[in-house]
Design a protein that fits this description.
Helix content is 74%, strand content 0%. By secondary structure, the protein is an all-alpha fold. The longest helix is centred in the N-terminal third of the chain and has 25 residues. The termini are far apart. The C terminus is likely disordered.
């Protein structure tokens, strides 16, 4: 079985009872991943934790890779839900406040169950690029680009699509690195402030960057 097939769910639940079973299985998978790690996680352990037969689990998930893939998909879907409200098109009157609120919301989201998120982020390369995750990331980029296009004027021509691409990747890389390497920093004011400064420094026109630079530093 190819890696792609192993990470794909066998079928999506349609009836309420089936949906409840899948929810129970995913909750159990999250618990086992946190307590046993990826290598120690087995479909048998997940089924036992969920209180279902291994056959019931295999109706929906052919492997633990499929369980992780579904948890990753839901993780990104919830991130989109968190960010969508912040990124709804609206006039920006205070760029610094807007950026800090966005960064704070993102950091707070990643701060929920960081041990599980660490496992998911570490195993994401093993699962491969998921189409649903790619679609969610594209949606986030679209929302960011709309807000910036409506509110920011740059003193030099800039490729807005590239600007957004860099911002999203910078935010994601920094937050993922903290979740995996320095989880004690998640949710701290210092991390939110430094990440906000990174984005603000990149977004401000060059004149504003000089104006906000530290005295004596060239």
């Amino acid at each position: 079985m190819s890696a792609r097939n192993r990470s794909a769910p066998r079928k999506r639940p349609r009836q309420e009872r089936a949906k409840a079973t899948v929810e129970t299985i995913l909750e159990a998978a999250a618990h086992v991943l946190v307590t046993s790690g990826y290598e120690g996680t087995t479909t048998k352990a997940v089924a036992e934790r969920a209180g279902v037969s291994i056959g019931s689990l295999y109706q929906y998930f052919p492997s633990k890779e499929a369980l992780v893939a579904m948890l990753l998909e839901r993780f990104h879907q919830r991130a989109l839900e968190v960010l969508a409200d912040k990124l709804a098109p609206h006039p920006i009157t205070d760029l610094e406040q807007e950026v800090r609120e966005l960064v704070r919301a993102l950091v707070e989201f990643y701060g929920v169950n960081p041990r599980l998120q660490r496992v998911l982020l570490e195993q994401a390369p093993r699962i491969g690029r998921l189409q649903v995750v790619q679609e969610i990331e594209a949606r986030v980029e679209s929302l960011v680009q709309i807000v910036l296009a409506q509110n920011l004027e740059f003193e030099r021509p800039r490729n807005l699509g590239l600007v957004v691409f860099i911002i999203i990747r910078a935010l994601r890389s920094a937050v993922w690195a903290v979740v995996v390497e320095r989880p004690e920093l998640i949710g701290t004011p210092e991390f939110v402030e430094e990440l906000s400064a990174l984005i603000l420094g990149y977004l401000r026109p060059q004149g504003d960057r000089r104006k906000h630079s530290t005295p004596g530093v060239k």
